[in-house]
Write a structure and sequence with these properties.
2 domains, six-stranded parallel beta sheet, 334 residues, Quinone Oxidoreductase, Chain A, domain 1, binds NADP nicotinamide-adenine-dinucleotide phosphate, Rossmann fold, seven-stranded mixed beta sheet, single chain, 12 helices, alpha/beta
Length: 334
């Protein structure tokens, strides 16, 4: 079968389409005929070797974090799926493998594809929508009447986060360039600050919580937008000790390292009176079922920016790496 394989760490040249053996499903796994796969910034960060401290792969490895497709066979012990089921999944972080014509995924990470979506839109969902759900529901406990700041809501995670926060009953402020304004307004943003011409820290005050998708100065600016006693969760800033223990299930060594790298940032959060948390999302078939039901109830729209054929996956990477995507980028296996 064809797969997009990483053979070293570096620029675009270290990953290419190759013929590899078809994987066999192990115990508890389903084998999926992949119809489409979504791209995420973590794919090029993995290729660049930026996540080696967290996930070490024995190279060569097939890249790709999320997919949609049809179950073709099941391994021993599988109870929830059978051949013919149309499914989607955020695959295991320690294994990857979604950029391939066939993939094996543990059934706990898989859910039935939303009935109202085609394979392209279903493949665009798992990683970004799970991240948004877990940040807003589990970490920030967003509920009716809360005021939430979500900088950068025009991208892959942001388009889901904005809609989920609205669904949970929040008033949402975001930042966008003129390129993304119409999209975030259509998805329900109550306040939109043009980050290319305005300083959002002067426009927004006393928000209950922030979900940062941008990092850097934007994350630090969010500390002054959130009221004292509020919480800021980032997926683009610096990891802190809880990231190591709760999200990565690692010991004191990594927690200490993250304590050191995030010390300045945590100090500035403390001075602003806000709690800071860096979240690594968690693959989950159960959470995908929740998201699928929101989609089928027309409460969540999946925004796809561009679709590429699998043969043009390198172009899809180059497009995503520009950082301007409005919604998601997807490849189809065809
Ligand atoms: N920790 C985790 O578990 C986790 C999970 C998912 C994603 N992430 C990380 O989260 C970040 C966002 O991911 P994504 O998939 O949403 O990325 P993305 O789709 O590539 O985001 C692109 C969007 O970001 C907007 N943008 C860029 N700079 C901005 C700024 N300064 N202010 C406001 N908006 C800005 C762009 O809008 P314009 O073109 O209009 O500027 C574009 O629409 C990435 O760093 C990714 O690696 C982490």
């Amino acid at each position: 079968m064809r797969a997009f394989v990483l053979t070293g760490y570096g620029g675009p040249d270290v990953a290419s389409l190759r013929e590899v053996p078809v994987p066999e499903p192990g115990r508890g796994e389903v084998r999926i005929d992949v119809k489409a796969a979504g791209l995420n910034p973590v794919d090029f960060k993995t290729r660049e070797g930026k996540l080696r401290l967290i996930n070490r792969y024995a190279l060569p490895v097939v890249l790709g974090c999320e997919l949609s497709g049809v179950v073709v066979s099941v391994g021993e012990g599988v109870t929830r799926f059978r051949p013919g089921d149309e499914v989607f999944a955020r695959v295991a972080k320690e294994r990857l493998g979604a950029f391939a014509e066939t993939a094996c995924v543990h059934e706990d990470l898989v859910a039935k594809k939303p009935a109202s979506l085609d394979f392209v839109h279903a493949a665009a969902m798992p990683l970004a929508s799970l991240t948004a759900l877990q940040a807003l529901r589990d970490e920030l406990a967003v509920e009716e009447g809360m005021r939430v700041f979500i900088p950068g809501a025009a991208g892959g995670v942001g388009t889901f986060a904005l809609q989920i926060a609205k669904h949970l009953g929040a008033t949402v402020a975001t930042t966008a360039s003129p390129r993304g304004r119409a999209l975030v307004e259509r998805l329900g943003a109550d306040v939109v600050v043009d980050y290319t011409t305005q300083d959002f820290t002067k426009e927004l005050r006393d928000y209950d919580a922030a979900f940062d998708l941008v990092g850097g100065d934007t994350l630090e600016g969010a500390f002054s937008v959130v009221r004292r006693g509020g919480k800021v969760v980032s997926i683009a800033g610096l990891p802190e000790p809880t990231t190591a223990t709760k999200d990565l299930h690692r010991g004191a060594g990594l927690a200490t390292l993250f304590w050191i790298v995030s010390a300045g940032l945590r100090f500035r959060a403390w001075r602003a009176g806000v709690a800071y948390r860096y979240l690594f999302m968690r693959p989950s078939g159960k959470d995908l079922e929740v998201l699928a039901s929101l989609v089928d109830a027309k409460k969540l729209e999946v925004v796809v920016d561009q679709v590429f054929s699998f043969a043009k996956i390198a172009e899809a990477f180059a497009y995503l790496e520009k950082g301007r995507a409005k919604g998601k980028v997807v490849v189809t296996m065809g």
